[in-house]
């Protein structure tokens, strides 16, 4: 077991990538603090992985008390804290025309400021155990889609945060900070989003090669499998790194000979 006796906070772990990471952490021997806004979904995950292996905290990640509550819950339930997975995020469409100050600030608060504040709160405990942080970003951090403006900027911000803290926290406290940038992942919410856009129930089947060279998009469990390396001691002293998990390169990608049908 690669995470035996580790205690890990996973934010946004009631669905999707966060849920998959929490489940895989428990399979690898860890105890987990689950977090999310949906109490019913949180209880479902808790029942699935076992109440002896996890506790659940339901609170808005932007709440002033949330970072302290999550860290205190880890200590009270399991006696320590070894790692934080910053996964909670708001994925929402916006562009140059409909992004106002309040909206932009909300997205930044959830996706970039809140992860920072949780790292700040957890640092004393992580320092005791030479622990680590894994931030879950997005390939959109590199520039993003035109209709994901605020979201993309927020993921760019957390990528810079990873590089900055990955250096400074390792030097001063021995705490690693790394990041995964997932590509297109078939989560429950992504499935529902595409259906709201008018696509069919089976939209993810038979995707064009330009979007999915393998014929399918990534599964949350595949992101979770990669997360274990960064959370485990196998990672050694590696810190401040960002790894992209996608099935095609972001730079130098081969376009089809006839790209006129790409939308």
UniProtKB/TrEMBL annotation:
CDD domains linked to this entry: SDR_c
Could you tell me which PANTHER family the record lists for this protein? EG:BACR7A4.14 PROTEIN-RELATED, ZGC:101858
InterPro entries, per the entry: NAD(P)-bd_dom_sf, Sc_DH/Rdtase_CS, SDR_fam
- One Pfam short name: adh_short_C2
Q: Which superkingdom?
A: Bacteria
Species of provenance: Algoriphagus jejuensis
- What protein name applies here? SDR family oxidoreductase
């Amino acid at each position: 077991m690669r995470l035996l006796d580790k205690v890990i906070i996973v934010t946004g772990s009631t669905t999707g990538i966060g849920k998959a990471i929490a489940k895989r952490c428990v399979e690898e021997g860890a105890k987990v603090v689950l977090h999310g806004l949906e109490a019913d979904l949180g209880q479902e995950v808790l029942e699935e992985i076992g109440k002896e292996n996890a506790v659940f905290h339901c609170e808005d990640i932007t709440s002033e008390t949330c970072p302290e509550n999550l860290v205190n819950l880890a200590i009270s339930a399991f006696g320590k804290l070894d790692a934080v997975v910053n996964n909670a995020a708001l994925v929402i469409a916006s562009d140059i025309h409909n992004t106002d100050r309040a909206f932009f600030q909300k997205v930044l608060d959830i996706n970039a400021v809140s992860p920072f504040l949780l790292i700040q709160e957890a640092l004393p405990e992580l320092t005791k155990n030479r622990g680590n942080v894994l931030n879950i970003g997005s390939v959109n951090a590199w520039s993003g889609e035109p209709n994901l403006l605020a979201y993309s900027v927020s993921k760019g911000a957390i990528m810079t945060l990873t590089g900055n803290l990955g250096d400074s926290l390792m030097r001063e406290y021995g705490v690693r900070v790394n990041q995964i940038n997932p590509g297109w992942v078939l989560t429950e919410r992504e499935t529902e989003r595409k259906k709201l856009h008018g696509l069919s129930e089976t939209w993810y089947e038979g995707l064009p090669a330009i979007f999915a060279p393998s014929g399918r998009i990534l599964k949350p469990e595949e992101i979770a499998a990669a997360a274990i390396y960064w959370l485990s001691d196998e990672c050694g002293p590696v810190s401040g790194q960002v790894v992209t998990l996608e099935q095609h390169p972001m730079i130098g990608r081969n376009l089809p000979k006839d790209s006129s049908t790409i939308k």
